[in-house]
Structure prediction request, 718 residues.
Amino acid sequence: MTQRWLILLLLFCLSPFHAASESNPAPVNVLLLHSYQNEAKGFVPFFEGIQNAFISDTAVSADFFTEHMDTSRFPGYAYLQHLSEYYKTKYQNTRIDIIITYASPALDFLLQYGDDIFPGIPVVFGLVSESLIEKRTFPENYTGILSGPQFEPTLDAALKMLPDTKMVLVVGGISTVDVQYMSVAKNQLKPFREKVRIEYINQLGMEDLLTFTANLPKNSIIIYSILHMDAKGAVYGPQEAASLIAEKANAPVFGISQTHFGTGLTGGFLTSTYLVGRKSALAAVDILNGKKQTEFTTYSEDTSAFYFDWRQLRRWGIDEKTLPAGSELLYREFTAWEQFRKQIITVLILFAVETLLIGGLLLNRNQRISMQKNLQKSERLWKTVLEILPVGVSITDRHGEIIHENTAKRQIWSGTGDTKPDFPFERKARRIAADEQIHPDESALTKAVSHGESTFEEELEIECLDGSHRFILNWAIPILGIENQIEGAVEINSDITAREQAKKQIAHSLQEKETLLRELYHRTKNNMQVISSLLMLHGANTPNEEVKHIVRDIDNKIQSMSLVHQKLYQSKNLSKIKLQEYLQELSELLFKSHSNTSGNISITTEIEPVSVTIDAAIPCGLILNELMSNTFKHGFSEDESGSISIIISRGEDGNIELYYSDTGKGTPEDFDFRNTSSLGLKTIFALGEHQLNGKVTFSNNRGLHCHISITDTFNQRV
Prediction:
């Protein structure tokens, strides 16, 4: 027996050394080839996934060599050639056991230069889509994790969340990867072309792109692909570009990568670079553990999931119930009630317990000592709970006298954070919504104690002990005792001063911007008037009558545009012009301009009160200028009497209908209005049909008649 125990003891002592010798795996060198710059955020979780996979496999110990290729900022053959020479020199004396790539530029680099730099080394690539693989030829030592962008499930989910969507805008850039992603998007979204209008935008500079996405039609959505470089050659981080677009866009922005999430994107079926990195590393570990590569292999792994930003859902009014099943909702913000509901309920319960204890003392004097101890313990407990709450809480008795206030309540009402013992003091408050001072008999606390009324989230402006003013949200809840008798009340104050100050600052900033915009319109009008005056001055000094007519026509166009800016800076609404006032004043101005030929001609106008933006007003004014100029020049003989009629109304379909007619001589019966050399008619068709998205028709019946039906897509302006 003794020998047996000695043998077991000897084995026990030697076993740690044996285990330690087996737990020391042979080190391997892993090269991580990152397509972009070091600051790219997507690579960090990708690398974390790789490390996690290698740590979990104790049979492989890895030393990592990381290269950031920075291809988005330095594209081109010469740069890649330089990289290949640099890597070949750098690693000529270093053994690389396996290479893991991040995104398609690094993969393409190895396909072109890998045999020369790292001949025969196994390659595992990640963050590459199946459509990109189909266009390449791979050696047998290549293995890939297919995890490209998922545009189709993202758009499908977006359309179910926003079923009224009419237009989908897919935005991206012009770098090699940007163009590849856009190609994937076009291929995946083909089935949706019959459901919605889809436009692919990657040929704009960032400034133009932001302006475009800020003025999209109603019922539009945006899908952010990826943008490393805009059409002007400016380089951006994909997260930076996503943040800029989401901030300026007037429509919700969905995405395809989790690394872009949190920048203002509403959400989507997002690819997790952490999972891609982990799956890629697991494939690399299999190879390092002896799994032979006899042919090119790919794996389709589950590396995407639905993620949505709670803040953006509220911003765009999207119901959480419409989210796909299994979606993860992040960045949720809680109200004060949601945050502290348990604490408040705890306070009320503890107070109810205290009330019951007091009643028990009155009913049973023999248990007074025991009940007093329990009461003191209970009081210490709920007072402790009250003291840790970040909101101000006070409790009153049935007469409205404060029996307890926590420190947060005293700090709010002191103003300076002082908690002097001379509380309570006369507390003055004003209801913000009604803009009235609160009489003590009408306060929420008095109503709770006297009438059992509850008050929730009442906004008040209070005067503090130090004379300063604060803004608070106020709750007052009655405490009911036996038989629903009112025993007191609980009042809760939440300090919202910082929020109110921020609102005032925003209002002030908007007022300053409106003033600057009004000044801009005014100065634009003045500058155009100066141009008009200079033009007329030069025209008056020329003896050529044809030149004078040309100068007058140009001046009329300038006056019509100048009048728009005059109306804008005189208007209360800086984004819209009353078309009635503008066209009436413009017609009078044009009538005076042609006073030498308009003496026997009368003008009648019937214009409904329609408001349009400057984008629609200027083309309308220029069209009216061309029509009236044509009438005064060609419609009537000298000293011939006649009339001009201008009618503008809004049709049942919402379109703006413009009718212009005169009683002049008209045009020949076979005259083709569209196929003519007349610059005026070409201008009318160009402005009416291309700039105003309308339809222009002419007729010739006892004079010239023109009808323009304008689709009112200019009713909103940012």
User: Anything to note?
Assistant: The CA atoms of residues 23 and 58 lie 7 Å apart. The two ends are 93 Å apart (CA to CA). The mean pLDDT is 80. The longest helix spans residues 497-540.
